[in-house]
Write a structure and sequence with these properties.
- By secondary structure, this protein is mostly beta strands.
- The protein has one domain: Elongation Factor Tu (Ef-tu), domain 3, CATH 2.40.30.
- The chain is built from one helix and nine strands; from the N terminus they run βββββαββββ.
- Strands 1, 2, 5, 6, 7, 8 and 9 form a seven-stranded antiparallel β-sheet that branches. Strands 3-4 form a two-stranded antiparallel sheet.
- The two termini are about 25 Å apart.
């Protein structure tokens, strides 16, 4: 019998940690980097009679993630040092499971500051899958140990 798939019921309490960030922001929404195989390879030849030929690519891509945060003004200084700094990033899911990957903050863009509105910022998360020594490194997914729900 196949294992029962446990789906997340709520995204509440998803957090993300950059190795060197400290606590300069609090997550409002977390969109981890995804997975994408890319556009298909066109394998069409003149011998095809009805359909174009296609083949899948072999390498995965990790489309950028996005983070919306409430931030401390010192985040400017911290993110100036984090932008482009390849490091271990860990997403912790509501059930306590984690996904750790190598990547960097690609941008820190504050939203407009307005009276009566909480200051927020958007942070782009770029997954590199290359460790500090320049070696290709798979993300590590660690399931939660308890039910977490």
């Amino acid at each position: 019998m196949a294992d029962l798939v446990k789906a997340m019921r709520d995204g509440y309490r998803t957090t993300i940690d950059f190795t060197g960030a400290g606590t300069v922001f609090e997550e409002i929404s977390v969109q981890p980097p995804g997975l994408d195989i890319g556009t298909p390879i066109d394998t069409t030849t003149m011998r095809r009679t009805k359909y174009r030929g296609k083949a899948p690519r072999k390498l995965l891509d990790a489309p950028d993630g996005d983070l919306t945060v409430a931030y401390d003004p010192t985040a400017y200084t911290t993110f100036a040092t984090l932008l482009g700094n390849n490091q271990l990033i860990t997403v912790t899911f509501p059930d306590g499971g984690t996904r750790a990957f190598w990547g960097y903050a690609g941008s820190f863009i504050p939203d407009a500051l307005e009276e009566g509105k909480r200051p927020t910022a958007k942070i782009k998360i770029v997954e590199t899958d290359t460790n500090a020594s320049g070696v290709e490194t798979d993300p590590v997914e660690t399931p939660a140990t308890g039910t977490g729900w």
